[in-house]
Amino acid sequence: MQRVLALLAVVAGIGPLPACGDGASVMKGQPESPLATAVVPAGYPAGTSLTLAPADNALTEPRARLGRRLFFDKQLSRTGEIACSSCHQPEHAFSEPAAVSTGVEGRTGSRNAPALVNQAWGRSFFWDGRATSLEEQAGKPIENPDEMDLPISEAVARVAADPSYAGEFEQAYGGPASEESLRKGIASFVRVLVSAASPYDRHLRGDDSDFGEAAQRGEAVFLSEKGACFHCHPAGPLTNEGFFNNGVYVDGADPGRQKITGRTGDLGKFKVPTLRNVAASAPYMHDGSLGTLEDVLDHYARGGNGGAFTDPTIEARPLSADERQDLLAFLRALTDPTFLADPRWAAGH
Ligand code: HEC
Ligand code: HEC
């Protein structure tokens, strides 16, 4: 019943407040808004999705609301069949349960749809980091022939021809729909996808009531040289935002970051993803080649696929059965159920 009321509230335009009953810090003086959340996940650098938005696209309620509508709108694909949410599904932490994605007319790409979690803190986007802002990123899938396959000018024309959008664009950006306001609106919605209420968040704030001893032992393995995970997935954000070859690359496969920089040493490097909500976003890695978290631990324990450019940190690290169970308990404690089922975005799905 509560959920139904919450959904109705969103539809009526009065969504619930951001989840902040677990000690998450809400910045003083920020407008309280159902979409422009001011919650900071534990262990992140300073800043909220409000303060991290670029100056020319300040995060406001009407912008995030417009972006939400666009994110779930199939009109933005040539065939009217695919929305951003087709591949970025809220209940899978805005990823999808498939190795690679399927776009218009059943076309498949070659990469796994990443989870969209706490991207407001991201520095570059896509597995190879080829977009430097969420605004730049937002237009790419619309035009990508394997995804939505629609010239962005046509996407703008479609929403401009829909009278129900006119007021929303006007309110958000003070004018009719344009390529710029389309990109900015979508980026505003991605920026409010903040996950800050996992058992791990509470653990970092000193409350271990639902973190558990196995998760604590797993965290110790993760943060020590035994697991060595922290080198790339540091405590808090669980990503260093860098590009590394973690041994997934094999000769002749997707070159990753090298395609962007042209540097030999960047062969097989991919952006380190956050691990927050990772239990909800299988399969794993840029190519979706690892089906489960158990497979991921096997991969790291054997030191990856042995490619020439593998990072030196990735080496055979035998893990006992108990250590594996503990690492899995830790990774599962990164799940934030309120994020996965948040009525602010469940409604549009
Ligand atoms: C057909 C499936 C599909 C659709 C539709 C789609 N995406 Fe994606 N998305 C992907 C894949 C696959 C990647 C990774 C591509 C790459 O790295 O080259 C990605 C990457 C991203 C990233 C980068 C995440 C990161 O960690 O760097 C963002 C943000 C994103 N998509 C948002 C969107 C938005 C917004 C839309 C709608 C305008 C959208 N996507 C539509 C499949 C899709
Ligand atoms: C040298 C840096 C590095 C180290 C050390 C490292 N990782 Fe990663 N991790 C990455 C990179 C880079 C990716 C993405 C690779 C790709 O997409 O091919 C990744 C991906 C993952 C993923 C998949 C996430 C997703 O959304 O697909 C998981 C889970 C993961 N790492 C867990 C771990 C664990 C557990 C450890 C320690 C046992 C660890 N990592 C150690 C760099 C590292």
Secondary structure layout plus pairing:
Layout: H1 2-11, E1 25-26, E2 39-40, H2 61-71, H3 84-87, H4 134-143, H5 152-160, H6 163-173, H7 179-191, H8 199-204, H9 213-222, E3 243-244, H10 258-261, E4 270-271, H11 293-301, H12 321-332, H13 337-340, H14 343-346
Antiparallel strand pairs: 1-2, 3-4
Helix pairs in contact: 2-6, 2-7, 4-7, 9-12
This protein binds heme C (2 copies).
One heme C binds next to helix 3, helix 4 and helix 7.
Structural notes for this entry:
By secondary structure, the protein is mainly alpha-helical. It folds into 2 domains: about 1-195 and about 340-345, Cytochrome c-like domain (Cytochrome Bc1 Complex, Chain D, domain 2, Orthogonal Bundle), CATH 1.10.760.10; about 200-330, Cytochrome c-like domain (Cytochrome Bc1 Complex, Chain D, domain 2), CATH 1.10.760.10. It has helices spanning about 1-10, 60-70, 85, 135-145, 150-160, 165-175, 180-190, 200-205, 215-220, 260, 295-300, 320-330, 335-340, 345, and strands at about 25, 40, 245, 270. The two termini are about 20 Å apart. The structure holds heme C (2 copies). The site of one heme C has 26 residues, from helix 11.
**What average pLDDT do the residues reach?**
90
**Which spans of ≥5 residues are poorly predicted at pLDDT below 50?**
1-32
The top level CATH class name of the largest domain: Mainly Alpha
What's the count of strands? Answer: 4
